User: What shape does this take?
Amino acid sequence: MSANPLDTALYSLRQAAELAGLDPKVIELLSVPKRTMEFTFPMRMDNGEVRIFTAYRVHWCDALGNFKDGTRFTGNLTLDELKALALWMTIKHGVGGIPAGGGKGGVVVNPGELSQWELERLSRNFMRHLPMKGAWVDVPGADIGTSEQTQAWMLDEYESIVGYHSPAAVNDKPSAVSGTVGSAEATGQGVYYVFEQVVEDFGFAKDCSVAVQGFGKVGSVLAGLLTEGGYKVLAVSDIYGGIYSQGGIDCTLLKEYVRKTGSVVDFPNTKPVSNEELLELEVDILVPAAVQSVIDKENAPKIKAKMIIEAANGPVTPDAEEYLREKDIPVIPDVLANVGGATVCHFERIQGLTDEYWDIERVNRQLKDWILKAYQQMILTAKEKGTSYRMATWINALLKIEASVKKRGWV
Ligand code: NAD
Assistant: This one.
């Protein structure tokens, strides 16, 4: 298969659609975006020069609700990458029971080259020139290169355009600007709820061993919760390398250490381990939480974990997954395990629409309910259809989308 992410996403779509017995017309409809927008805007830089920026927004399918999801500011952004991500978000919303369609967009820019003022003007310009927007139309959230701050500027710009407050029009805002509490931790928190349920359902011990690759926004939150929950985190890593301790790493202390040093490397009382070695450790559960395609057909035969939970997007390649399935090493897929972020974005929108803001207990209680409901549906479908957990999640999402498409009379 080609490395084009859109080909990969369409391949999964067709595979799952066939297993789900989807109407061919629905498959045809879901194989193309509803619309793609490419637009440009001029912006004056701090040095007085004017630069023309290219921006995109892709709307894949809105059968389940209005478009929603991330905005990337990256130098190598492509339309095919955004189309693949918009399709994935359509599926992820279906998996999570979130009433939203899949959208994704961004600006071709390396934010590291911009000053703070330029970043603010870029965020405001993106929102000003975005052709379709609003709480019931398309709600952009953060992604690579964007942050709580860019989202706060985008909301402020939107509200100044329409002339009234509309907190539900932008996601991933800080709680000081009508965002939600728990948004920064939501993905890691959701992975943790899935992890706990997996331990119970698959008969692991309450202090089973874990390795976590990646110690960023997702991995560090998850690892901290694993330590607090009494699990034995034998190894963690980041881009600079990994650490190992036979007795388990205190990830609450590690978070403090990383805040000071910028890396997990050389954390006291641990031995160094490479990222490659970490993946091949003898642990009960392996959680890749860094980047895509780290478990491929080359290293799949060396995996000794009994179970893999995908916190990152796409860490296990399709051929590696086939091998792991034969070896009876189940993979809990990304679209389910990391749907916590998208779920809490939906809660953020509900709070913005009602102007009633929740406390962290309510956010986490509802997140747990929603993600475990999606998890139970995945387990049931995998059993009924005899498929992998990944295919089961896709089938569940596709059947929900198909039901809406048909009742709407689209095909
Ligand atoms: P992040 O940038 O905050 O952290 C990434 C971590 O992985 C860092 O510790 C980094 O050092 C490490 N890393 C980077 N490249 C690596 C490599 N080649 N080998 C080993 N470690 C490496 O990112 P994040 O937000 O924590 O996202 C992690 C993964 O989860 C990504 O796949 C992302 O798409 C996915 N994800 C994130 C969210 C979210 O809410 N942040 C939601 C859904 C999915």
